[in-house]
Amino acid sequence: MKNVLRLSKIGLAMVLSCMIAFSTASAFGPSTMYTSPSSNPSPGSLYPRLLTLKHNGAYNGRMLATFEKYVSGTPTFPIYESTNGGVSWTQISQVSDTVNGWGLRYQPFLFELPQAIGTMPAGTILLFGNSIPGDLSQTKLDMYKSTDRGQTWTFVSSIASGGAAHPNGLEDPVWEPFALVYNNKLIVYYSDERDPSHNQKLVHQTSTDGVNWGPVVDDIALGNKRPGMPIIAKLGNGNYIYVYEYGGAPEANFAIYYKISANPENFGAANQPGTVLRTRDGVVPTSSPYVTWLSGTGPNGTIAVSAYSSSDIYLNAENGSSSNWTRISSTIPSGYSTALEPLADQHNLFILSSGALPNGSNRNSVVFGSLEIGNGSLIKRLQPHSPSQYFVRHYEFVARIDPDPIATINDSRFRIVPGLANSSSVSFESVNFPGYYLRHYNYALRLERKDGTSQFNQDATFNQVPGLADASKASFQSYNYPTRYIRHYDNLLRIDPIGTTQERSDATFAIQ
């Protein structure tokens, strides 16, 4: 486990930084970006994507979004814009198929060039999508560009062409483009069923000008198994994480797997699937993942992954270490290939979802909102102001302080997550009992499994404030009994009113 700096060594600035991480931005949503009219075919909308402008000067910070829009005629990809950090959205344009006459039907992806590629300058917005005729007889991954931040669009090139758009492993389609720039090349990753030796494989092609594309390179190729939906994110240490769904995985069908590499053109042997994403409490998410990285959540930042199987967001603050995945609940409903984007503060996560795969006559709306990650993926210990050689721990599910070293070290490790009752507050989740939280009952603190009730959520939520005995440390005010604070008394933790110097000391903790 990577050690983190002790709060006592970095003083008040660190306390303020931690407080800011939980309070500068309020979570919003779920809200609706688009509602499919009842006259449109099912599923109405699907497969949303978005980006935040970073290479457009005064326009940086604006956000663009798109999605599959199901209509009776020729489909296009609508382009929506937000100028207020994702809180509200307005449609500004649409991208039409100007070369095939089929329509842009499936799997859009938006990308902003961070540098010039060929004649396209930095800041050019690219849209990749699957052009497919109404009878679904062909698939074609095409690229369009906008030099006016999404207002107008022109065709640039076609990357790959394939057979009918039926995901049965028999008709050779190409699917699900994703793009990034590396080593002065534009790389497009996608799912490919054209190789007769594979049900489906994940591949990429590169271009130095956006017009001419190099040979197909295998990334994940597993014979009769079915890997799909490649998504890549760059981490703060310079590595890249490649996340995909693994059809036929031993853990669960379409389990989320990942690989990590310093070179996004080489994620190791293509016949090796990589690592399953499994949380510390044993959950393996499945189907249509998305991955991003937030820089403002601790020394390594935080990897965030979504999956179709749940509205939870899966977090890793240890650069993808397989034993350090946790999960946090979200109010934004899960959807097929939900998209994620860090907001400007880099510790709030924007989530864009458009519901389920076709199921009867359902018509999905595109919904969005944000989730405060804070330092929720970091593992911390709480050290009393006095006696300073002690640490908070649980023992037989009772919260107490004991002298260090604590033999069962994980008894003293917690995730400080956004509060269960209020995301601007905090809750303490056990590391070795994931899903168990410190909560008060008859004023005494215990470790108990979250039961989903409002009472539990309030009892397990605390307002973090500057330390009552030392402002460079922290104190924790009960959310539902605001005159009481967490303090130790006879080595046991409880919530009490605080008045005396001794009580202020007992209610003050350093976060390590």
TrEMBL record:
Pfam families: AbfB. Residues 1-27 form the signal peptide. InterPro entries: AbfB_ABD, AbfB_ABD_sf. The keyword Signal applies. Keywords: Signal. It comes from the Bacteria. The keyword Signal applies. Residues 385-511 form the Alpha-L-arabinofuranosidase B arabinose-binding domain. Gene3D superfamilies: 2.120.10.10, 2.80.10.50. This is AbfB domain-containing protein.
